[in-house]
Amino acid sequence: MRITAIPGDGIGPEVMREALRVLSFFGGRELKVDVAHAGRTAHDASGHVLPEITERLVLDSDAVLLGAIGDNRPGDYEDGLRPETALLALRKSMGCSINLRPILCTAQPLGSRYGYAAGSDILIVRELNGCAYYGRPRGTRLVHAPSAIVPEGFDTMRYSDAEVRRVARFALEAARHRRGMVLSVDKANVLSTSRLWRDSVASTACEYTDVHLEHCYVDSASVEIMTRPHDYDVVLTGNLFGDILSDQLSMLPGSLGMLPSAAVGHNGRGLYEPVHGSAPSIAGLGVACPIAAILSLAMLLRHALGWHAEAAIVDAAVERVARALPEQGVPYGKASSASTSEVGDAVMAELRYMS
Ligand code: NAD
Ligand code: IPM
Ligand code: MN
């Protein structure tokens, strides 16, 4: 088994260090870990946000664990210059069209502001290879306004029936193994892509009479799910809405620093990464919460390697640590006042205690 670890930018290397410590706890098995670079760090070193060597390692590996990518500089308009284009290219070339983002509120820090969410368990199933993220044409151009030539930017939001059915089927199957409910989120009152989305989801669901399907507009869904999280099970949505909803719902367990994700697809290779980004304002301070990265590793162990017992131990260790995290310092993004390595130490101690 081969894993490629891409630490990336900002807090990426800091949280990756803790995730790799956890991985080393399960050492002594047939596992090869290569470290590769992408994003701003790679661009500064090699002139490319996604160097060829990284692409090759990724395609040769069974799974990829990624820290975070992103450190934009003014004027980085061109696709090849922005660090995020490396991430988008990886998701596409790996065929990772389905993004699983579990929002599990068992491990809520003590006294979290959203205490009412305790016990809720939502799985966001986000389409990851389409929408306005990849649609063509896109770009900037000069246009003639009445009295001047002015610049404008444009993107294309696009979904095909086949793309929607693929992710819908995945969400419906997932619901079958959970509580049997899917909420499909769109903006069908305004967008053509969303009207197609709604029709394609509904007709795919005809084969799943045991699953209860509802549709909701994204603006309304953002309030409904936050206020009644226990009423929801699988939340199925497109690339753009899924991006926004997942940051918002990270408030339920208490912090963006605690949300893992898995991007999976048709060729069996997955990309495992925290939902959060490179958090430039706290990079280098040693205060980033590594829980999202450690839980992403647990998803990798479970889905890519089939190490179910090991993944369950990591989940349980993190849950015990998260329960003990003090409430002060749970503003947006922060998980606790503990440092990155202190949280990592606590997880390692729990792993040793439980094994
Ligand atoms: P961000 O997720 O990096 O940060 C949002 C807020 O959450 C900030 O206050 C940050 O300090 C905090 N935060 C994030 N992760 C944290 C952690 N583990 N522990 C404690 N606090 C944490 O979002 P942003 O500031 O909008 O984006 C910064 C850069 O990251 C951008 O370039 C963006 O494109 C990129 N990004 C990358 C990924 C990825 O690599 N998967 C995901 C999201 C954003
Ligand atoms: C995420 C991020 C990415 C996205 C960016 C960095 C391209 O926000 O994974 O949530 O929008 O998908
Ligand atoms: Mn995001």
TrEMBL record:
Tell me the lineage of the source organism. Answer: Bacteria, Pseudomonadati, Pseudomonadota, Betaproteobacteria, Candidatus Tremblayella
| Pathway field | Amino-acid biosynthesis; L-leucine biosynthesis; L-leucine from 3-methyl-2-oxobutanoate: step 3/4
Q: Molecular function (GO) terms listed?
A: 3-isopropylmalate dehydrogenase activity; magnesium ion binding; NAD binding
Coiled-coil regions, chain positions = none
Q: Which keywords does UniProt give here?
A: Amino-acid biosynthesis, Branched-chain amino acid biosynthesis, Leucine biosynthesis, Magnesium, Manganese, Metal-binding, NAD, Oxidoreductase
Organism (species) = Tremblaya princeps
Supply the EC number(s): 1.1.1.85
Quaternary structure annotation from Swiss-Prot or TrEMBL: Homodimer.
Q: Which cofactors?
A: Mn(2+); Mg(2+)
InterPro entries to which the protein is assigned, alphabetical: IsoCit/isopropylmalate_DH_CS, IsoPropMal-DH-like_dom, Isopropylmalate_DH
UniProt-listed PROSITE patterns: IDH_IMDH (PS00470)
What is the protein's name according to its record? 3-isopropylmalate dehydrogenase
All copies of the Isopropylmalate dehydrogenase-like domain together span: 2-347
Family in the record = Belongs to the isocitrate and isopropylmalate dehydrogenases family. LeuB type 1 subfamily.
Q: GO terms for biological process? A: L-leucine biosynthetic process
Q: Which gene encodes it?
A: leuB
